[in-house]
Specification:
The complex is a heterodimer of chains A (112) and B (308). By secondary structure, chain A is an alpha/beta fold. Chain A contains 5 helices and 5 strands; from the N terminus they run αββαβαβαβα. Chain B is α+β, with helices and mostly antiparallel strands. Chain B has helices spanning 13-21, 24-27, 41-51, 71-79, 87-90, 104-113, 134-161, 187-198, 203-223, 252-255, 265-269, 277-283, and strands spanning 55-59, 65-70, 98-99, 118-122, 128-133, 171-177, 227-234, 237-244, 287-292, 298-305. In chain B, the strands form 3 sheets. A 5-stranded antiparallel sheet of chain B has the order 6-7-8-10-9, with helices on both faces. A 3-stranded mixed sheet of chain B has the order 3-4-5. In chain B, strands 1-2 form a two-stranded antiparallel ribbon. The longest helix of chain B is centred in the middle third of the chain and has 28 residues, at 134-161. Classes of the chains: A alpha/beta (112), B alpha+beta (308).
Chain lengths: 112, 308
């Protein structure tokens, strides 16, 4: 699955579309940024409720392709601006982290 | 009563930190001018006038709060011909009170939620210990913010003083890091990552360095009084140095333990303070050292070897 398909196939709402559309390596679900920093793989999608610009900084440093914000949490404008500058895609969904993880698991499978 | 132009939920981190660190007892007016239930409204009218205030808590002989009597009540009494009546007949009995060890943030929220000009402050045992008004809060915040700005200016001045030129063949980046500056947190690490990439270092090594520098940067933002984050590139070694101005770590061994953190509740709510920062940084390092003691700063050095 490619980054853009998080919108077209998974039905998540794209909020920030300045990014390089590339194949996703997997997904990582966490609300602890140090945990994401230590464990998420490059080119993966992050499933989280941490809707603020520090999440973008972590995503950019780890080389994540996209962030999916769950539970319909409001995404502040400065987060979208930071994401555009770093080329990290942002999607929003009313679904929980559990549901989103399940959907992504069915498509991307277990991490290699 | 106009709302206070700050919020307990959002705003600059420095201000949030202040309103959670300051307690209501730090800003309230105490001892308090009070009224007794048996006094007349006329007496209250004079007491308000003589003291230049707009409201009084009404207490019994044991300093237990019975109600609040305000300028508006005196005006109503004058209009209604009841200025000779007892206070307890006309005071407001449904009173919203604050407690003295609540953070100032509670008072800010109360002023913005209710239209009262002042709140009585009770201690743990429900005795009246003070009154807090919007101007008490504004005065205390101005003093605290002044002190904070002065401290930040001193940090900046100190930082410019020890900029030394890099040695031959060495590439060096250095960034000032501000306490609780979540707006810019991660920027230094992003720049360091760009330098390493531009240098042609492989992606896996760049990632290890990015993890270490981000964790050390965030540690300075969350826990230190401010400091610097530097990256030196020389002889096949990436060296990342986080140097701060204090307060220092009491027990380094405990601080290195996974899951141990002293971060406050609102910092945790941002997804930080999981107690994984130092362990994460150490795990990705070839060499890791930490030098710290309470009362002076902390220096963390990470070295990661690379091949081109």
């Amino acid at each position: 699955m490619r980054t853009s398909e998080l919108g077209t196939r998974m039905g998540f709402t794209p909020l920030q579309e300045t990014y390089e559309d590339r194949p996703l390596s997997g997904a990582y679900t966490s609300d602890l940024l140090s945990d994401v920093m230590g464990s998420a793989a490059a080119d993966a999608v992050l499933v989280t409720i941490q809707a603020h610009r520090n999440t973008v900084a972590v995503a950019s440093l780890v080389g994540l392709a996209a962030i999916v914000i769950c539970n319909g949490r409001p995404v502040p404008e400065d987060m979208l601006e930071a994401a555009a500058a770093e080329g990290v895609a942002i999607f929003l969904t009313p679904r929980s982290q559990f549901e989103v993880s399940g959907l992504l698991w069915a498509d991307l499978g277990a991490p290699a | 009563m106009p709302e206070l132009p700050i919020s307990a939920e959002a705003g600059p981190a420095v201000v949030l930190e202040l309103i959670y660190r300051l307690k209501i007892r730090d800003v309230m007016t105490s001892p308090t001018i009070t009224a007794s239930p048996g006094e007349t409204m006329r007496t209250i009218q004079y007491r308000l006038r003589d003291n230049g205030i707009t409201g009084l808590p009404v207490v019994d002989d044991d300093q237990r709060l019975l109600g609040i009597v305000a300028m508006e009540d005196v005006i109503s009494a004058l209009d209604g011909g009841r200025i000779g009546d007892r206070v307890d007949a006309l005071m407001t009995k449904q009173v919203i009170a604050l407690e003295d060890d609540m953070p100032l943030a509670f008072a800010v929220t109360y002023f913005n939620r209710y239209s009262y000009g002042r709140f009585p402050v009770l201690d743990r045992d429900h005795y009246l210990v003070g009154v807090v008004s919007a101007s008490d809060i504004i005065r205390a915040l101005l003093v605290a913010m002044n002190a904070e700005v002065q401290r930040l200016e001193e940090v900046l001045a100190e930082r410019h003083a020890d900029d030394a030129p890099p040695a031959e063949g060495e590439q060096r980046l250095s960034f000032p890091i501000m306490r609780l500056d979540f707006e810019n947190a991660g920027k230094a690490s992003t720049e360091i990552k760009k330098l390493l990439k531009a240098h042609g270092i492989d992606a896996a090594t760049v990632r290890r360095a990015a993890v270490a520098s981000y964790e050390l940067e965030l540690n300075e933002v969350i826990h230190s009084e401010g400091g610097t984050l530097s990256c030196n590139l020389r002889d096949g070694v990436i060296e990342i140095i986080a140097e701060d101005l204090g307060p220092g770590i009491a027990d380094v061994e405990v601080a290195m333990r996974e899951g141990y953190s002293t971060a406050s509740e609102w910092i945790r709510s941002l997804g930080f303070g999981a107690g994984m920062g130092l362990p994460n940084a150490k795990r990705v390092s070839d060499e890791f050292s930490i030098d710290s003691a309470p009362g002076r700063g902390t220096v963390v050095k990470v070295a990661i070897a690379y091949k081109l």
